[in-house]
Write a structure and sequence with these properties.
Elements (H helix, E strand, L loop, with lengths): L7 E4 L2 E3 L2 E3 L4 E2 L2 E2 L4 E3 L2 E3 L5 E3 L7 H9 L9 E3 L5 H4 L2 H7 L4 E4 L1 H10 L9 E4 L5 E3 L4 E6 L9 E5 L4 E5 L19 H13 L3 H14 L5 E4 L10 H12 L3 E8 L5 H15 L3 E6 L5 H9 L1 E7 L2 E2 L2 E2 L1 H13 L5 E8 L5 H9 L5 E2 L4 E4 L4 H19 L1
Parallel strand pairs: 8-9, 9-10, 10-11, 15-16, 17-18, 17-19, 19-22, 22-23, 22-24
Antiparallel strand pairs: 1-2, 2-7, 3-6, 4-5, 7-8, 12-13, 13-14, 14-15, 20-21
């Protein structure tokens, strides 16, 4: 059985030589309870080619893994699909070993690498810049480069191995999973992890993703395998993750309502539960999230897959509760498409939470639906019935 310590041949002469970060628990500000990987790939041909590198702290582990296949000093080409340090910060170390290697990157990629590694002797690095459609012959095989601007950095690109129909997709189609398994058909719930990854990293670039998928379609690429830079490799019907990206990027959610709230003394929670009950009574699926008791990264994934959501906060210091403020800052940055939102909350001697929540989202493309619900102190029977009626309306909107 393959172990994580060994390189793995994913196609003839094509090897996974990445690393597993078993202890990764936070990435880009969201929780990664299952750890992660930094994937790099080695193609052994007339020109030995390394696709991407890894995080600097794992550089020697990657080099040791490569050395079990070839002498790392014999690497001829390094493809830098992305400047971000989890993929590029091992470059200075690998170039100490493979001193004659040429680096292939986009023009923005070259600029970024020069800026990041100015103190690492990058002025002596041998670069060749590429753009969409450019090809590189490495012997019996040919690489095609595809720019992927803002997926999710300006320099991003993908590399296609023509003879083997493998797309080295860098940060697209990835997941954060630490596992000794390398393929999607060996890991349960991989689509769930891919959805969480998309929701928390790629949601702001939805329109770019749709255009990029069009570009891949126009190039007429047959894709038998997708090898991302994080997580497992898609070999079992890779079209399913491409189709999932098209759906997620479109912003078209399921007929479901998400109720997101925090509560100080239970009043806002009572409202949230009554709203959820109304949604259920309408015949629509509903999920309830307390902001301090749930992982925000999972919450964002659920929100991506719904059409309607409700936000509830108590008033504290004449404004929204601090957790709601932090969550809305995070949500705003992700810019989800085609979502409808309603607001509710409780207050004591003065309000302000709802006003601040509306202010926080007013310049987004989210549509505000239904009048906000405000309750002073503890909700009474009539207040809870009003919440229930709001839930029924939101359920109907989600199904419309």
């Amino acid at each position: 059985m393959d172990t994580p310590e060994e390189p793995l041949e994913i196609a003839k002469g094509v090897y996974w030589v990445g690393v597993i970060d078993w202890n990764l628990r936070d990435f880009h500000g969201y929780e990664t309870p299952r750890g992660g990987t930094y994937n790099a790939y080695l193609i052994v041909d007339e020109k030995i080619t390394l696709i991407d590198t890894v995080k600097a702290s794992f550089a020697d582990e990657m080099i040791e893994r490569i050395s079990r296949i070839v002498d790392p000093s014999k690497i001829d080409y390094i493809v830098a699909n992305h400047v971000e340090m989890d993929h590029s910060s091992a470059l200075p170390r690998i170039l100490e070993v493979a001193q004659n290697a040429k680096i292939f990157a986009t023009e923005r990629g070259k600029t970024g690498l020069n800026e990041y590694y100015a103190e690492s002797g990058c002025s002596g690095w041998n670069f060749e810049t590429v753009k969409t459609g450019d090809e590189l012959n490495i012997g019996k095989r040919t690489l095609m480069f595809i720019e992927a601007v803002m997926l999710h950095w300006p320099d991003s690109m993908q590399t296609y191995l023509k003879e083997d129909n493998i797309l080295f997709s860098n940060d697209a189609f990835g997941q954060h999973i630490a596992t000794s398994k390398r393929f999607d058909d060996q890991v349960e719930d991989v689509m769930e992890d891919a959805a969480i990854y998309f929701a928390n990293i790629l949601t702001p670039f939805a329109s770019r993703i749709l255009k990029h998928l069009e570009t891949i379609g126009k190039l007429g690429l047959q894709i038998d395998m997708i090898a991302p830079s994080h997580g497992v490799i898609w070999r079992n019907d890779p079209q399913r993750i491409i189709d999932a990206y098209a759906k997620w990027a479109s912003g078209k959610g399921n007929q479901k309502v998400i109720v997101i709230y925090d509560s100080m003394w239970g009043s806002t929670e009572m409202m949230a539960k009554a709203i959820a009950e109304g949604v259920r009574a309408s015949g629509t699926d509903v999920v309830l999230f307390h902001l301090r008791k749930n992982d925000w990264s999972m919450l964002i994934k659920e929100l991506m897959e719904c059409r309607v959501f409700a936000l509830g906060s108590p008033t504290m210091h004449n404004g929204m509760f601090f957790t709601m403020g932090g969550f809305l800052t995070y949500l705003k940055g992700l810019r989800p498409k085609d979502k409808k939102v309603s607001f509710f909350g409780s207050y004591g001697w003065g309000g302000g939470a709802i006003r601040q929540m509306e202010e926080a989202l007013k310049n987004t493309k989210m549509e505000f639906v239904e009048d906000p619900l405000k309750v002073k102190f503890r909700p009474e029977k009539d207040d809870l019935e009003g919440c229930r009626q709001l839930g029924i309306k939101l359920g109907e909107i989600a199904r419309s």
